[in-house]
Amino acid sequence: MIGIPGALAGLIRLHEEHGSLSLAQVMEPAIEYAENGYRLLPGDARRQAAGASQALEFPGTAGAYYKGDGSPYRAGEVFRQPDYTTTLRKIAIGGRDVFYEGEIARAMASDLSANGAVIDLDDLKQYEAEDNRIVRGSYRGYELVGTDVPAAGVLSIQALHIMEQFDPSSMSEAEWFAIAGQALQMAQRELGVLGTDSAAVRATSKEYAATLAAEIAAPGRAAAGNGSPLPPLGPRDDHQGHTTHLSTADADGMFVSLTQTLGPNMGSKVVTPGLGFLYASTLGGYLGTMTEPGMRARSNINPFMVLKDGEVFLVLGAAGGGMIPPAVVHAISRVIDFGMDLPQALAEPRVAGGFGSAALNAETTPGIGWSDDEMDDMRGLGLEINAVARSGAFGRVHGIQYDAATKMWIGAADPDWEGSARGPTPQRR
Predict the structure, then answer these.
(1) Taking the CB of the first residue and of the last residue of the chain, which one, N or C, has fewer CB atoms within 10 A?
(2) Span 293-329, pLDDT tens digits
(3) What kind and span of H or E run contains 16?
(4) How far is it, in rounded angstroms, from Cα 56 to Cα 59?
């Protein structure tokens, strides 16, 4: 199901309240890429090819993302977006109003209503980007900062609060991350009840974390709690095909952690002719949890920051559906508990809760996965451990680490995916 495109409203508001350049300046690089094109990455080429059977049903999508004969672009070919170029230029001049009230809004409303959608021009005009609830916690002297529903910052905070009850120096690395996997599995079950102040306070409570920690299978305990395995999670959130995370900073010390998603591969597969962008279908997977007007959809996106003594230390987030909170938690633990820098932390294997199963999944992708001996360490805690070897299966993190002593930034992109870390010649803050 297609909902109102909300990313632009949020980005425009962010620019109005915190930006230092004009909107036209900020949008210039995106317009240049859309107009002149860029070489398609192998992953993007695979995704467009995989979505073709549905996407080609829509003339706007066929014209925007496929060749004239309906064939997909191949990896390495230059992909240009002339319609999207026009749309971006109109936004650079007209801002929010042209998208939600003006020419672009009228095109969207006409196309959507003609094809059975419930969105009309009044809905677009009334759309507002609202403040979100900030959630906070702490981990071994570091401050944790995330956002609540529709994001999953509470889940990462709760998992870290549970993990704080244990000492990683007293166990093997594999045993420690088996504890992390169990903590994440417990936290994931909170997603269905989040969305209120009281739910967030309970889920991020240190006292509640201590109670949950008693159910963790750890060295010296034969099994979790009363001897029963952890109950299974619900069906896996499949909204991971087209999620993008960006972590960035400027010379004035402004940091941004931003996650946005279309949902599954190519989102809804729908492009309004002449506009050039895909509508998301994120709303579809969450309608069952939205029972009252004003409720927000719940998701696993997790833009996150870690502070030390009031100074930003880590800025991170990930793509990967239900594997986003585990990826964030693993990165934080690797840096804080094991003294790694962020690029090294992202190259290490991960453990996460199994979806639809009480078992834990452990990463065994060649070159970055757990060894057989380490898997045995995890199973030695009385846990069922599945080996999973698939590139990108455990989340794809992009982040920044700030070193206050040297006043230097370290950018990091998950080596298990097609991201990158870019920046100017090293700058001092």
Answers:
(1) C
(2) 666 777 888 999 999 999 999 999 999 988 999 999 9
(3) helix 7-18
(4) 7
| Beta carbons within 10 angstroms of residue 169's beta carbon | 8
Cβ pair 381, 362 in contact under 8 A: no
Tokens 């206050």 belong to 404
Pairing of β 304-308 and β 243-249:
unpaired
pLDDT tens sequence across 115-169? 988 899 999 999 999 998 999 999 999 999 999 988 889 999 999 999 999 999 9
* pTM score of the predicted model: 0.91
238 pLDDT higher than 50? no
Q: What is the C-alpha separation between 81 and 35, in angstroms, rounded?
A: 6
- Annotated catalytic residue: which of 87, 204, 243, 365? 243
Catalogue the long-range contacts made by 192-200 (C-beta closer than 8 Å, 24 or more residues apart): 192/234, 192/289, 192/298, 194/148, 194/149, 194/154, 194/298, 195/148, 195/149, 195/295, 195/296, 195/298, 197/133, 200/133, 200/135, 200/148, 200/154
Structural domains in the chain?
A: 7-130+263-289 (no CATH), 134-236+300-413 (1.10.246.130)
Distance CA 125, CA 9 (A): 11
Is 86 in the active site? no
